Amino acid sequence: MTRPRHPFLDALDRGVVLADGATGTELLSRGWTGLPAAAVLDARDLVRELHEDYIEAGADLILTDSFAANPIHLENAGLADRTRDVNFNAARVARDAREIRGVDVLVGGSVGAIGRRFAVGTVAPEQAYDAFAEQIGALVEGGVDLLVFETFLSLAEARIALSAARAITDMPVVVGLNFVSALTTSAGEAFPEVLAELTAGGADVVGVNCGVGPRAALDVLEQVAAADPSARLFVAPNAGLPRITGGRPFYPSSPEYFVDFALRAKDLGAAIVGGCCGTTPAHTRAMRAALDSAERMPATVEVLSRGPALAVSDTRGGFDVTAAPLAEEPPEPDEPSRLRDKLAAGQYAVSVEIDPPRGHNPRKAVEGARLLRDAGADAINIGDSPMARVRMSALALALRIEREVGIETIIHQTTRDRNLMALQSDLLGAHSLGIRNVIALTGDPLPEASESSAVWDVDSIGFVRILKRLNEGVDFAGNSLGRPTDFFVACAANPTADDIDIELRRVRAKLDEGGDMLMTQPVYDLATLSEFFERLGPVDVPVLLGILPLMSSRHTEFIHNELAGVVVPDAVRARMREAGDAGAAAGLEIAYEQIEETRDFEWVSGIYIMPSFGRYEVAAELIERVRATAPVTTR
């Protein structure tokens, strides 16, 4: 039967595959003092972060932390009965790092030699075969893409491991042997002999790793290049010969030195170039740059995991595999919040709220945003099913507006409709699409007629904490995101709340959690507004004052009597009654007066306009008046 073509082999055809560097010495330098392979059980995050560092440095192939994870080695640490756990977890940690980073690197299952105990006969060939089979089976079950045998001391032991692999899986196998200064294995075998036998036994790539430094490794490659220029070779030397400093090994070869090594290895026909003991992500980064300057392999490497019936669906994670090359994904927008920058510069900011449509046609909202942009608005707020009524998603409308109108948005997100997982998933998706401004809200209570259930895993205070955790590069459970988000986090404040003491405590808690901006509910009584902020105490974040232009006396009474949390003073209600048919003009004038009277409030950095009934032209008129008279800056 013809063996199916594996994407790893296609990657080799396209150019040099850059493998990562050392695992054991790097874990030691990062504080791990136990058996390196045991770190996947007791220091999973430490191992994952190391994988992520190598991915970030530019590695195309990362190796699992399972070098000494066969049951014979694990027995020394009392972990022989956990061979499957160690190797399975090693594979999953590496795959987690790949998912977090979002880069299609290959995951190689590292299989180390038994070594001296096999060489002297303490471990019989049958025992060695069983040990390798147990380890390889667990790595395949964990979802590795290929197997990488490292630092084998003899051809005899490598043959046994290779036969165990071929009995379990048809995935590619790379075999690296430890060569001594005489340029032979410890058993005295020369590289041409090793290459011929292992290739005949089913190895896809054969080479040299560990033991020697870059120069000796290149000498081995030169032997083969002269004898068989078509051979696919693997080379991953140590960073020179170590010396012990402070009880720890110190390896002298610098990343710069590995630049010359990588280029020379490529010229000699190396298919896989990497590093072993003493090499670091800095060495990988230097080699990546050198290989890129020569001839970079395609940026995306298709990843495929094949294996026997050992694998079970709920351990695979759902990685989608196709026969065609993967399309290169556009980079995530990295532009920061322009609104944040304007406020930081002391510019007077204007945001206007637009409600998403009840249906799926956003034309009116998009045209309204264009009108408001032309009038001088800095941002568009987009509600999240306001009044607990079903509307188009805030994120979908935000994307339409940002892309079609070119104005920044602030999406409202409530904890009412999403559990903790969905909340974070939506935010990560929003960030990947370029959304940077979010106002964290608890959400209006659901009416009985909605036939929906509220979630409220957290309230708005907890939501702020979640957003700031994402900005630190971890989710709420502390799992790494690979890269931190860059959300500008707004919070709501209601100076006319029924229980003002509770509201003050909650607003202060949001600020203490790291809120970047406050946006108030509409306030029609400036004395109430001033008292609220006096009691709140120092506020060192921008505040956008909520402005809801009144449209008529009837509208005013609705706001006062039916809109929770908003109070319209008697004097304003009387003025709107007296205006009669000219209510819209009177409401606009009241709104403008509010804005004028708050110009000298040092904590007011701008306004947040909430036009009713989709009357965006009213908001646009107000913005034009404000832009004509408001100060350029608030400082």
In short:
With 635 residues, the protein is an alpha/beta fold. It contains 24 helices and 18 strands.
Structure commentary:
The protein has an eight-stranded parallel sheet with strand order 1-10-7-6-5-4-3-2. The protein has an eight-stranded parallel β-barrel with strand order 11-12-13-14-15-16-17-18, surrounded by seven helices. It has a two-stranded antiparallel ribbon with strand order 8-9. The protein is elongated and about 105 Å long. The protein has 635 residues and is of the alpha/beta class. It is 43% helix and 14% strand.
What are the salient characteristics of this protein?
eight-stranded parallel β-barrel, alpha/beta, 18 strands, 635 residues, 24 helices
Structural class: alpha/beta
Query: How many whole angstroms does the radius of gyration measure?
Result: 32 Å
- How far apart lie the N and C ends? 77 Å
Helix fraction by DSSP (H/I, runs of at least 4) = 40-55%
Main pleated sheet: 8 strands, parallel
By DSSP, the count of extended strands is 18
